[in-house]
């Protein structure tokens, strides 16, 4: 978990990214009261327009995507709270609701959730037989 200890030691209060964070980083955010905001997919051009200045770049030797960028921005957004200061993650909240709803549908329709209901055509290229 690169950055977890560093974020904790530097008391980082806000991180913006595009993916999830591991358990170590979530714990570090809880300890510092920091939050993780997720950049919205498809908004790169909008975000680029909101950058006023690149103030600094750290660890550029790791490559541009892995470097830490210090940006001056004007009204940056839209952003979504991915992890709040209590360590609640948007992913876990959404998945909990999804599984609850899926299980309710399975129960209502009398579907056995332990079985696989995905069917993929097993057609061999050039064949008309779907059973092979």
Commentary on this structure:
The chain is α+β, with helices and mostly antiparallel strands and 132 residues long. The chain has a domain at 4-88: Fe-S hydro-lyase, tartrate dehydratase beta-type, catalytic domain (fumarase, Alpha-Beta Barrel). It has helices at residues 4-9, 23-32, 44-50, 90-108, and strands at residues 14-17, 35-39, 51-58, 68-73, 79-83. The strands form two sheets. Strands 1-2-5 form a three-stranded mixed beta sheet, with helices on one face. The model has no long low-confidence stretch (mean pLDDT 85).
The CATH topology name of the domain at 4-88 reads fumarase
What would the average pLDDT be, to the nearest integer?
85
CATH class of the domain at 4-88: Alpha Beta
Total helical elements: 4
Give a quick account of the main beta sheet: strands, pairing sense, barrel closure.
3 strands, mixed
Low-pLDDT residue intervals, each spanning 5 or more residues: none
- The appropriate CATH architecture of the domain at 4-88 is Alpha-Beta Barrel
Shape: elongated
Strand order of the largest sheet: 1-2-5
* Beta-strand residue fraction: 15-25%
Helical content band: 25-40%
**CATH homologous superfamily placement of the domain at 4-88:** Fe-S hydro-lyase, tartrate dehydratase beta-type, catalytic domain
Specify the structural class: alpha+beta
The count of DSSP E runs of length 2 or more, i.e. the number of strands, is 5
């Amino acid at each position: 978990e690169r950055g977890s200890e560093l974020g904790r030691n530097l008391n980082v209060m806000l991180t913006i990214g595009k993916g999830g964070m591991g358990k170590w980083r979530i714990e570090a955010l809880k300890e510092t009261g920091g939050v993780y905001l997720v950049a919205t997919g498809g908004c790169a051009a909008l975000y680029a327009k909101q950058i006023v200045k690149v103030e600094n770049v750290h660890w550029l030797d790791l490559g541009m995507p892995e470097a830490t960028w210090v940006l001056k921005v004007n009204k940056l957004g839209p952003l979504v709270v991915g992890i709040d200061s209590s360590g609640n993650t948007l992913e876990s909240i959404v998945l909990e609701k999804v599984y609850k709803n899926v299980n309710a549908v399975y129960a209502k329709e009398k579907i056995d959730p332990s079985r696989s209901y995905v069917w993929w055509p097993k057609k061999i290229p050039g064949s008309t037989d779907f059973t092979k």
